[in-house]
Amino acid sequence: MKAVTLGPAGTYSHRAARAVADDVEFRESVSAIVAAVADGEYERGVVPIENSIEGSVTETLDALSDNDVSVTQEIVTPIRHALLAQSGNFSTVASHSQALAQCRTYLEAEYPDVALEAVASTARGVERARNDPAVAGIGHPDNAGDDLEIVAEDIQDRQSNATRFFVVAPPSERSDAGGKSSVVVYPNANYPGLLLELLEAFAERNINLSRIESRPSGDRLGDYLFHIDFEAGLYEERAQEALADVEAIAEKGWVRRLGSYDTRHVLY
Amino acid sequence: MKAVTLGPAGTYSHRAARAVADDVEFRESVSAIVAAVADGEYERGVVPIENSIEGSVTETLDALSDNDVSVTQEIVTPIRHALLAQSGNFSTVASHSQALAQCRTYLEAEYPDVALEAVASTARGVERARNDPAVAGIGHPDNAGDDLEIVAEDIQDRQSNATRFFVVAPPSERSDAGGKSSVVVYPNANYPGLLLELLEAFAERNINLSRIESRPSGDRLGDYLFHIDFEAGLYEERAQEALADVEAIAEKGWVRRLGSYDTRHVLY
User: Is the peptide bond before B8 cis (omega within 30 degrees of 0)?
Assistant: First the structure.
């Protein structure tokens, strides 16, 4: 099995991809990975869909609605925060506000006098550390590279933080079996109660929604498509009924069934 | 009135800020802008909240839930796409897939033979153009700087694309009057139908939701806070009733009223 994911070697994505394929190659963007699978160049692609700090990976959501692929598995991996700096002598820790919050206990105990600086992402903070010896960033130990020191590992307050990946495959491999399903809905309409109607289609059949995300259609401000994850297999009658309702609501737009899948936890 | 927004001079943010203040200063991140207003350093901050191509500005959503500020106005500005390259001789146009889609008519007519490359953002595409003479990007003409040529202006298919900004102010200036309101809800709970209950609180009072966005709480995967924009003033009885229901749903968490406001359209 040949898979493609985000490089370089050692990223969370690479670790997740090794769980589904022996032969892993790299592309530089999520869009390129999903397009390569849609074109039949690879049997599988592994892309991050959601992270407990940064939230949804919007590039992945958009790639899944723009390309004809299926989702065959979900992989969840824990986040491990390390403190990364050019040396132990720094006066500022720069990271995403939620990563700072997740490491608060450690930072207050070990570095009570350093300034905390909120930046747009954990990657931005590590970049700041790379360019400024007075700054430390927070990230997976593998992000240290050659120029940063791993000052401390596993500094997060608890272990429950994680990243979710989707394994994508050609559309012919779409499965209806599995405990969770994902669909993309573009109603191409906007009226009071539209979103409520969509949610009721599932609630009436006692199907739990694990997540709903809106993304701009790109056509006009306030026009959205919805990524919906729900806890039922597409083969189930209640799921088929709910989706029939959803298709009626989206009669001017479209509904894309990405597939059903199970969750695999990759720990390391 | 002194306001702070994203620089450099000439950005969309700067244009929007000039509509509310004569004296505009710059900070390099949305987080820094919102924190500076919360600290009382500036009377107003102007931050992008949503864009019809890129979607929500997640850094703004997070800054609004992390800081004690109010929202006093919404500003909407049109997007103007220009084709930016080192010269008219390029073989690839690199941009966000939705910006490419928005300029399809123009590109097919004028450049039928160039390759279209989807990248993570319009900014990434312009960066590619800056580094590679064979690549063109798509962006506002002011992004050309000294090293790129404006090959063509206003190449978008239609004029309805826009960016939405929030004007933030110290919490003491929170207004209950205005046609729209924004709140942030952290239920600190997760059970089937939770989101549906939140939406019903508004639907039952015939209040239209113009937008709902989930953001990770940062505590654990699958734990969200919700940014809700609705079409009613906080002073209205139906809004107060709806928010009382929402507060009961979020009894283990919290509800933050950002304020009510009107929309101002800035055209140029």
Answer: yes
